[in-house]
Amino acid sequence: MTSSSPLQGRTAIVTGASSGIGRAIAQHLGEAGAHVFLSGRTAHSMEESKKTIEEAGGRASVITGDVRDVAQIRSLIDSAVDETGRLDIMVNNAGISYPAPIIEGDPEEWRAMLETNILAVLVGCQAAVKAMRACGAEGQIVNISSVAAQRSNSGVYGSTKHAVNSISSSLRDELENDTIRVTNVMPGAIATNFARNFDQDFVDTIVKMAGMDVEVKRGDRMPPEVLDALAENMKQLLGNPNDVAKAVLYAVSQPIEVNIADIVIRPPKSMNVPH
């Protein structure tokens, strides 16, 4: 790595790194010099990112797991510390959305959102702080929220992101006397697999917006070429995951006396999506 690697010597963890925003964040942090631990449920895509990072001169490790399992989150952080001796950056990115009116919602889908979007963030923050304190790091915790948290009527998913905003603000207060900073990032509509659990009509509309004749069923991951086409063709309505990754890289590259509290990353136009 060269002197243009601002994160040289640092260890970073990114959850939800299999695709989308998490994958982009991991690659940007790795290419900036950090040893990145990619965590997610899809090993092959993370291995591809690992190869990309290493080809750019960086270092990466892949650990598959489910953030809904508290023990697995703690084990992930222990693994990073065991391998590198430290933890400097924790990006709590893993998230899931099941949009439906409250009166029609599935409690098991609510449970999945609560455990993924809230509990995993809490456990990730807590374990990361302990690891950062233990090695005396000038640490950076980044929690990926959503612009849904800026609306009072954004449904169950939005409620989980309101919680993320509150967690970030509360933790920031708790860490004022530590050399650990907390940044809350709120993306708008981004060209990712986020919409895969929306109803079939919405999924079909998204694919048509990409200008491609591809069949994608509700719950399926959208092919990378569809996401690439969306990012390129719908710039007014859909942001690029790399834009969010660049914002995260900016935040974690600041000196410890600079506290970047909140960042909103969104395309020029708002998209009305189900909640």
For the record, what CATH class of the largest domain applies? Alpha Beta
Second CATH tier, the architecture of the largest domain: 3-Layer(aba) Sandwich
Shape: globular
Look at the helices and sheets and give the structural class: alpha/beta
Give the strand order of the largest sheet, numbering strands 1, 2, ... along the chain. Answer: 3-2-1-4-5-6-7
Number of helices in the DSSP assignment: 8
Q: How many DSSP-defined strands?
A: 7
CATH topology name of the largest domain, in short, is Rossmann fold
pLDDT < 50 stretches: none
> Average pLDDT value?
89
Total count of domains: 2
Q: What is the H level of CATH, i.e. the homologous superfamily of the largest domain?
A: NAD(P)-binding Rossmann-like Domain
- Largest sheet: number of strands, sense, barrel closure: 7 strands, parallel
What is Rg?
A: 18 Å
Distance between the termini: 44 Å
Determine the fraction of residues in helical runs and give it as a percent range: 40-55%
